[in-house]
Amino acid sequence: MSRSGKWRLWALAASAAVAAQGGAQTIRFGGNRVVITANPAQLPADGTTASRIRIEVRGRDDAPVPDGTEVIIATDIGDLTADLGSKQRSAAVRTEGGYAIVLLTSEEPGTATIRATYLDSRNQVMVEFLPPGEAGKRESRVVHVTGGWVGYCTDMDLVEARGPAELRYQGLTIEADTLQLNPRTLVVKADGVRLKRRDQELQCEDTYLELSTMRGGCRRFGDMGVEEITYNAYTLKPTEAEQQIPQDAYRFDDREGRVWTVARSLSLFPGEKIVLRNASLHVDQHRVMRYPPYWVIAFEGYRGSSNTQFLQFDSTGGLALDFPLFFSVTDTSTGALKIQRGASNGSVMAREGWSLALELTNQSLTRERETQLLIDGLPKDQWGLLLTDRRKLFGGSDADFSFAWPDHRSIFTDFSVFNYGSAGHLAARTFADRTELGEWSYGFNADYLSNSIPVGPAARLRWGTGLQAGRNPWDTNGFVVGHRASTYFDFTGWQPSSSTSLVPGISDTFSWDTANRRQNVARLQLSLNHRLAKGINANVRYSFEHRTGGGTYDPLDTRNGINQQLNLNVNAYASKRWDAYLNGSYGLTDETVYGFGALNYHPLPKYRIGLIGTYYKFTDQSFSDLEVSLNRALGNREIGVRYSTTDDRVSLQFGAMQF
After folding, report:
1. What is the distance in angstroms between the CA of the first residue and the CA of the last residue of the chain?
2. Using only C-alpha atoms, what is the Rg of the chain?
3. What is the overall mean pLDDT for the chain?
4. Helix, coil or strand: residue 554
5. What pLDDT is stored for residue 248 in this prediction?
6. For residue 155, with 0-12 CB atoms within 10 Å meaning exposed, 13-18 middle and 19 or more buried, which class applies?
7. d(Cα 520, Cα 258) in Å, to the nearest integer?
């Protein structure tokens, strides 16, 4: 199987995992506030290039928890590490100034869910691991619709424009008397049609066009009466190859929708949002209210600001509001003044009370450059600033920059660059941090990793070398320079059946630094993948490490000698009725345990019964909890009632309600 083919399979598996977790409201407010961020959030899956995971823990009084507080962190893909030597999927980390920082690497492409838990509070972040050399950034596709009447029907999830109507998309213009667009499938149906692209033109009575493939069919009058042809929308020429046109392809959706948002014009960002200009809400053909100049309707999974996913409520965590007033929306940029209150689940700079925020975003049409500036907490003393920028540099290198000033007291900066060559690739990162109660720490790391070299019929070799330098305030040696050398043996593995595979891996990493510290980590890994049934996949991984030397500061508290860990991941998305997710780790050497599972059952289309279990046991603490919830869908979000065995009480939740 090709590398891109394997990536597509991993992407499908990751989508199932996200779907299973997404409906389970796995982020939880408790007695404390846990915030987790990842920089960068997209990187190659090579086992060496790392994302810095930062966890912030504060109490209800917004004060940092005491130094040395133990926080549990776990991932379902990849490995957590302090120095790219010893690696594990779950661990206990200790805070300094309210923060803890670890690294995350992966040799497996996919979307990793990293979950941080402190007692009864938890939060999560996702990191996308791509096959090395693959950008993984889809081309930006923006569909513009104008007309004498333009509307979006919430009931039918349908865009409609009436005479004269016009749709513009990637250089193609469709003029029609009436036009309908499905925002999910990107299928266009129109009558009285004229299609234009540069100097090409195609006229027909009606058309069916799939914007995702730019192929469609149309009917027009010819010498023999009504004739049907298929065409390519890039050239507007008839296609000779046979193309299947669905039955009733030209028939409009004639259902009567009750709720419409009617606008002067509309822009669809597929998979993300719909932007309506000068819109108003209509119910049963009567106008109910006018909206601000720009009104943004978000789709499921969209993480940006919108006017429809702005409210969260948890009776244990309070009300969280993040409502944007957009003053500019274009194909490449947005500008919004936001009204905020409380700590929303997804916020990286949450604070109590009411405040204002300014958010500016900008991206290129090809998404080779994305920039976000967020200033929030105004006009409070602890206002915060976040600046992120991702772009292509130096002839094709991927660069990622982040500057966070979350509370006007702590500062975190990260800068990473990945460059892919014919023989291997280079990854470099630098950081500078200062917590509210601590001193400056800074560092630089550069790693080179070769491409795979065949060393036998079933094995390939990779080698890498790295240089690091930096200073941590807890290290009495001051500024330290170090070097690292790694060797990886990748094996094809054994596949006893079409649904089962066993893949081994061997690696060795030796490191030293100017503080006379030496460390060697030899690692053996066995990964078993098995498809239990259609839509149900399981992965069991066994890792064996032998570590010698040591003496370095290690927030993961790994020790010399043998360390063994067993990991389990199960994703089940077999039907619309139920889905399940399980992520667990067991330390065979130190007997540490981590487990998180979610089960969702849908007795009726709009209702969900959720069950979430959490258990962990590490050095200083253990925790167990079982949560049961009953939820009802409103739009594509939920309102639910949850009972927790730890709290022994019932709480009410609005999960980023959409209106």
Report:
1. 44
2. 27
3. 83
4. coil
5. 83
6. exposed
7. 67
